[in-house]
Amino acid sequence: MIQFKIKPFNELSTNELYEMLKLRSEVFVVEQNCVYQDIDNKDQKAIHVLGYLHDNLIAYARVFDKGNYFANASIGRVVVSLSYRNKNFGHELMNVSIQTIRNKFNTTSIEISAQEYLQKFYETHGFVATSAMYLEDDIPHIRMLAIIC
User: Which of 47, 80, 103, 127 has CA 20 to 30 A from 72's CA?
Assistant: First the structure.
């Protein structure tokens, strides 16, 4: 069973920070063959959701309060290690991320910039597309919004 740690930036250990950046780089830079600036000075404002299985970081997302990334609260850098996909860990990660926003921020709206091919995945979590496709770092994305209770 996946175990989640939820931490603001200043509470991350050096090892947690390293693991988080390594996983993001493995997927977003190497696997997706996308050269972009992952370290974007936004991690310091985020709450980090780290998912561990047998002491290995296999899932990660960062969440923001409204106004820190988008006008609404948001979830970003949603990632599951390649060898652990298709085991519903992505859904667990999204559920925990949404719950973190419920618990930490006084808001009912979550906005994301989603890779277009994941639209149906995000729709299962209540997100609806609010934009046409646009390129972000040369990858097709769409803006999506969810209203949470």
Answer: 80
Structural domains of the chain, count: 1
Write the DSSP symbol of residue 27. Answer: I
Report the CATH number that the domain containing residue 17 is assigned in CATH.
3.40.630.30
Measured torsion, CA atoms of residues 87, 110, 125, 131, in degrees rounded to the nearest 10: -100
- Are the CB atoms for 127 and 144 separated by under 8 Å? yes
The two beta strands, 128-129 and 73-80, are: unpaired
What are the angstrom distances between the C-alpha of 35 and each of 28, 41, 141? 8, 17, 16
Which residue has 């994301």 as its token pair?
112
Pick the closest to residue 144 from 88, 81, 79, 98 (CA basis): 98
Q: Is the pTM of this model over 0.70?
A: yes
What radius of gyration do the chain's Cα atoms show? 14
Q: Which domain range does residue 18 map to?
A: 3-147
